[in-house]
Every structure is written in C-alpha cells, then in structure tokens.
Design a protein that fits this description.
Largest sheet: 8 strands, antiparallel, barrel
Shape: globular
Strand content: 35-45%
Oligomer: single chain
CATH topology: Lipocalin
CATH class: Mainly Beta
Number of helices: 2
Number of domains: 1
Distance between the termini: 71 Å
Strand order of the largest sheet: 1-2-3-4-5-6-7-8
Helix content: 10-25%
Length: about 140
Amino acid sequence: MDILKFVRGIVLILLFAFLFISCALSMQQGQTWLDAKTGPANLDLSGNWMCPEFSMAQLNQEGRNITGAFYSGGLIKGVVNADSVSFLVYDADTIVYMAELQSVDQKTLKGRYVPASSHLLNSKNWDEFARPIKLIKMPTQK
C-alpha cells in the first residue's frame, strides 16, 4: 500500500513538472515575440526608472534594443516600437514576465504585464491575466 502511494506521488510530481515545462516560455520564443515589433524607436529610455510594481530599474538603449535590470532582481530585454516598449523580465534563461507599455509623455510609460507563458505569447487576450505597470523616469543625477 505504501509503495502505491509513493508511485502515485511520483507520477503527480512528474505530471506537474511536465505541465509547467510545457507552459514555460523559452528565451528563443521571447526573442521571436520581440522581433515581431518592427517600428522605429521614437523614445529614448536610457536611464533610471521607478516602477511601483517592481522597484527601480536601470535601462540601456542602443537603437531599438533595450537591456537592463530591476534592482529587486530580474533582467530586462526588450525593444522600442514607435512610442511603445515591449520587454521580457527574466532570470538566467527563464522568462518570468512579458510587458507592453505605451508612452504617456517623455517621462512616463503605462501598460500591462503578464506572467510569461507560451499560450499568452501571441495572444491578444492578455486581459484575464494582465496587471498594470507604470515606469516613471527619474531625474539624472549630476
């Protein structure tokens, strides 16, 4: 009887692991999502940004490409697409969040982010899972 419980437990763990892996978003899938954003860069996002939902963030921009990190943890990789930005928040090779924000003005971006998942990758229906996100550019210290 105990061996049966043990085997059932192992099977459940394997099923949950398989489910998690099948929904996880690879860096390659995330890069493909970013590459689909093809507009010119109309924003300069380099600098320090306050994000109430996470923490301070340092962003660096080269052309359309954005890299950076949240001070609380999580690396940022994204692209500027006209007056919006799309980015991934990741740790090692695991994407944690996907975000899309629009420029409100030169110092404010507002949008939404979702937990990274392959079934949300190309979906326009983020609404069920989306949470608001805001970035506010901090003044440059001299």
